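tool=predict chain=A
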Amino acid sequence: LDVQPPELVWVTGYSAIMVDATGEAQVPQEFMCHANLNIDKERHKELFGAKKAANPRLFTLSQGQNSIEFPPGFGIPVASDEALDLGMQVLNLNYDAETNGPLEVRHKVTITFVRDRDLRRPMTPLYMEAASGLVSLGSKRAHYNTDDADPEAHGEGCAIGQDAHTKVTKDRNGNTFSGHWVVKPGREENRTLVTRYMNLPFDTRVHYVAVHLHPYAESLELYDRTDQRSVYKSLAKSFEPHAGVGLEHVDAYSSTEGFELFADHEYELISVYDNPSGEDQDAMAVMFMYAVDKEFERPEGL
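tool=predict ok
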């Protein structure tokens, strides 16, 4: 928003659809891989005086979900002069260019927002809290950044897996993990303790959840190990076999009431993949939760 002086605006949604080279005609959404919207986390943290760990990612859309819209009255606060960065990736698992000819595609992106000056009632501020599935690259199951892991409290830990050509993460105990791993043919359930990964700064309430999964995923679930209950489970629907490889739909969560997250609880992320292809496939499992930012204070001058 090109206004001077800068003002406070509230980002309320984000969409990205696949279109042809002209940017007008839609093409099959199976070409969607990622559509990321990022922000300069250090400048944003400085502007808003945030104490919690900052995340550069505002939104991720991927195959199966091409839009995010928060419930009415909720939004992410940003300054109108903050720079937003788009990161796009295209996926082609089915289209035969040799038979059908070259195809050029683009992402058509829309960001929705409201100006604070136009509000009739205050907005509820949200921030993004992520939980990522991991596999252990060592010789045994491991728990990310967890000392003296207790199976009853912390679960069995990340399954031993194979990295899928991505950046390897090492925790403070020297254990190595990957958030992009190989799924062998057959069914796989992986459980990741995400309490330390999330590092909740306070008790809060989640009002929107977006989920990133790869083809052959069945579900992704956040489980409260302290209360022994499911918090939220997203189901994924694959293309019909004749339509090729890909995700037709991935569930999202949107609610004005929301659900609670507690800083002193242990949380586990459970991903399920079923790979009938007979070949190794790659996988990710990330849950993006938009929670009430209890430390938000309106910056002076906005």
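The helical segments are 41-48, 97-100, 151-154, 195-198. The mean pLDDT is 95.
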